[in-house]
Amino acid sequence: MFRSQPFDIEAYEKRSKEGPCFVCELIAGNNPHHIIYEDQTAIAFLNKYPTLYGYALVAPREHREQATGDFSLEEYLALQRVIYHISEALRQVVPTERLYVLSLGSQQGNRHVHWHLVPLPSGVPYAQQQTAAIDAASRGVLAISDEEMAALAQQIRSALA
């Protein structure tokens, strides 16, 4: 459907480690992404560098760095409820054999905790699934136009309604 293009992993890692927080910059309006959901506590948006179609991220609006330790149980469960609803909307819009839900990043880079929601399409060979499916360094990223990303974001927002 979309061709892959090479991804400059070194530049990405440098930004992740040395640059400002990408989620905080997005929330401040300095790092535009295609937003699919936002409320007073969370934001969900399409990944700028998707390895698979429909790849989205969900993050708390407040800068937090631990996937569980920086949240009360109630805050964590509320965020997981958002993740669930975004995941179900993705599954309605994007053909999905399995939806991967991961929290990646570390104190060394991409510190603002966020969850990756990655729809694996049917027919992907097993050796190209799981972490291999999100490895932009070896797979490259999908060449999806801004217009196509905007249309996808709108479809997901509609599925959430």
Provide a quick synopsis of the model.
The chain has about 160 residues and is an alpha+beta fold. Helix content is about 35%, strand content about 20%. It is globular.
What's the helix and strand layout?
Elements lengths: L3 E2 L3 H10 L3 H6 L7 E4 L3 E5 L9 E5 L12 H21 L4 E6 L11 E6 L15 H4 L1 E2 L3 H15 L1
Antiparallel strand pairs: 1-7, 2-3, 3-4, 4-6, 5-6
Helix pairs in contact: 3-5
Describe what you observe in this structure.
The two termini are 27 Å apart. The chain is 35% helix and 19% strand. It has one domain: 2-Layer Sandwich (HIT family, subunit A), CATH 3.30.428.10. Helix 3 packs across helix 5. It contains five helices and seven strands. The strands form two sheets. A five-stranded antiparallel beta sheet has the order 2-3-4-6-5. The protein is an alpha+beta fold and 161 residues long. The protein is globular and about 40 Å long.
